[in-house]
Amino acid sequence: MEAKELIALARQVMQRAYTPYSNFNVGAALLADDGQVHLGCNVENAAYGPTNCAERTALFRAIADGYKPKSFRAIAVIGDTEGPISPCGVCRQVLVELCAPDMPVFLSNMKGEFVETTVASLLPGAFTNQDLTSSGGNS
């Protein structure tokens, strides 16, 4: 599946977002190793903290559907932004946890612009499970 096809799926699911507070819809399409695509959109909450971004919705949905971490080939994210959308810090951390460092990430906007990056490029120096085990768990 090409980047543009994945972005088109993210654009479709973006319309399902629940954003009564920000009116800022975001869609994501996560491609698994077996070709299955897991869709996600942002879902807001009046308390703000429980809000979930599109990227995390797609990733958590895939995990809930039985896919293993690191079994994904690419993710596309789209929003109505001036330039290609950029994932928040929390989503970047979750991408690091559940995806391979070299996995392609396609960032797009409604004007059709997109850039390709990788999980590792989005969060250099990421905190990983290696950080938890390097000291034997003692702090």
TrEMBL record:
EC number of this enzyme: 3.5.4.5
Function: This enzyme scavenges exogenous and endogenous cytidine and 2'-deoxycytidine for UMP synthesis.
Organism placement in taxonomy: Bacteria, Bacillati, Bacillota, Bacilli, Bacillales
Example of a GO cellular component annotation carried by this entry: cytosol
Ranges for domain CMP/dCMP-type deaminase: 1-130
Protein name: Cytidine deaminase
List of residues binding substrate: N42, V43, E44, N45, A46, A47, Y48
Coiled-coil segments: none
MF term (GO), any: cytidine deaminase activity
SUPFAM superfamilies attached to this UniProt entry: Cytidine deaminase-like
Reactions mediated catalytically: cytidine + H2O + H(+) = uridine + NH4(+); 2'-deoxycytidine + H2O + H(+) = 2'-deoxyuridine + NH4(+)
GO biological processes: nucleobase-containing small molecule metabolic process; pyrimidine-containing compound metabolic process
Alphabetized PROSITE patterns for the sequence: CYT_DCMP_DEAMINASES_1, CYT_DCMP_DEAMINASES_2
Domain of life: Bacteria
UniProt entry tagged with the keyword Metal-binding: yes
Family the UniProt entry places it in: Belongs to the cytidine and deoxycytidylate deaminase family.
Cofactor: Zn(2+)
UniProt binding sites for Zn(2+): C53, C88, C91
Keywords: Hydrolase, Metal-binding, Zinc
Active-site residues per Swiss-Prot or TrEMBL entry: E55
